[in-house]
Fold each of these.
Amino acid sequence: MLTFVAAAILSFMIFFPLVVATSVFKVLDEKQSSKFLRIFFPKYYLYGFALSGIGLLLSTYYDNKLSILIFLFIMFGFVFSRQVLMPMINKSKDLKNESKFNKLHKFSVVINFLQIIGCIFLLVSYLK
C-alpha cells in the first residue's frame, strides 16, 4: 500500500509540469492562465497533503521509520507551499515584482523536486 501512495504522489507531481502546465500556457493567455493556476494550485497542494497524510498513517501502522520521515517532509512541503509560499508568489505577481516572483517560484520548484526525489527514494526502497 505504501508503494501505491508514493507512486500516486509521484505520478500526479510529474503529470502537472509535463501535461497541465504545458497545455495551460499553450491554450490560455497570461491573464487566463494565472487565473486558472490560482484555482488549481490550492487543490494540487491539498491533494498532495492528503496523499502524503495517508502515507504517513500507513508508515506509522507498518512502523516504517524512514517512510515516516520522508512522508512528513513531503507533507510539510505541501503545507508550506500552499499556506506560505503560494500567497507570497501571488502577491509578488500582483505587485509585478518579477525578481521576487522568480525567486519564490524557483523555491517552489526546488521543493517540488525534493518531494519527487523523496517519492522515488521511497519507491526504490519498497521495491527492494
Amino acid sequence: MHKKYVIAGALILAGFQAGLAQAADEAAYKAACDAAEEARKMSAELKYEWNTVAPLIEKAGAAATAGDFGKAVSLCDEARLQSEAAVAQARQQADDWRSAVVK
C-alpha cells in the first residue's frame, strides 16, 4: 500500500521537476531572445543589420513555440553574435575609409 504512494509521489515530483526545467528553459530563451533583439536593433541603427539575423530570430520563435527551447536559445545566441559582429564591422569601416582616401 505504501509502495503505491511512494511511486505516485515520485511521479508527481518528476513531473514537477520537468515543469520547472521547462520554465527555466523558457526563461533562458526569453533572455537570449531579448539580448539578440537588442543587438539587432543596435546594428540596424548603424544601418549595418545583416540579412541573416531576422530569420534566425524567427526560427528561434518557431522552435520555442514547438517547445524546443534549447534550439531556440542556440538560434538567438547566433543572432546576437551576428548582430554584434555587424556592429563591430560598422565601427571598423567607419574608421577604415580614411586609409583608403588618396592623399
Amino acid sequence: MKTHSSTSVEIRFSDIDMAGHVHNSRYLSFFEQARIDFMGEMTGPEWNWRERGIVLGRNEIDYITPIYLNDKIYVITKCDHVGNKSFTLSYELFKINPDGDDQLCTKGRSILVCMDFKTDESQPLFDEWKNYLLASLEA
C-alpha cells in the first residue's frame, strides 16, 4: 500500500514577491495541493466530501531556503500522527537540482479534523481512512 504522495508544483510569476523569491503565503497553497493529492489517493474518486470530510485545524511552516520562479519543485506528503478525531499531515517541499541531489527547502504540517457535515460536528476518524493513515506512520 502506498503511504505517501508526491506532488509536482508549478511556480507562477504571481507567486514571486519583491525580493524575487516565492512569497511566504504561497507555500500554504502548495501544501493544499499536496494535501488534495494525498487525500485523493487515500479516499478514491467516489468519496462524498459534502457529507464526510475534514476541516483544517492548524497549519505550520518552517522556511529553510528560498525558492525562485524557475525552480522545479515537488512536495512529499505523509501522515505523522493519528488521533481520535484528527490526524496530522506533514509536507516536505524539495527543489530539484541538476546534479540529482534534491534540496529540502520547506517543511510544514497540518492538523485535520474529521467532520460530519450533515450534523456539522467533529467525528471519530473515519474507519475507511484508518488503515491508510496508520500505514503512513510506519513508512
Amino acid sequence: MKDNVWRLVGGGLLLLMLALPVWANGGSQAVGEVKAVDSVKRILTISHGPIPGLNMSAMTMDFYVADPAMLSEVQPGDKIRFEVETDRRGRYVIVDLELE
C-alpha cells in the first residue's frame, strides 16, 4: 500500500514538473504564414503548423492581436513566429510576433 502511494506522489510530481514550463510561459509558440490582415477587426489570418501547447493541429485560422500596431508589421505572404494566448472570452490572441 505504501509503495502505491509513493508511486502516485512521484507520478504527480513528474507531471507537475513537466507542466510548469507551460504555466510559466503563459502562451504557446507557433510558426506560420500570414494569409490576410484585417485592421478593422484586429485579426490576422495565419496558416500555421501544430501548436502543441494549445493541443491544436496545423490549419489556417483567424487570430486577434493584442496590440493593433502588430498589424502594420506584417503583410500577406510573410513568414512569422508568434506567441498566442487564450483570452477571457476563449479567443486566441497573438501577444507577440516577429518576422522569420
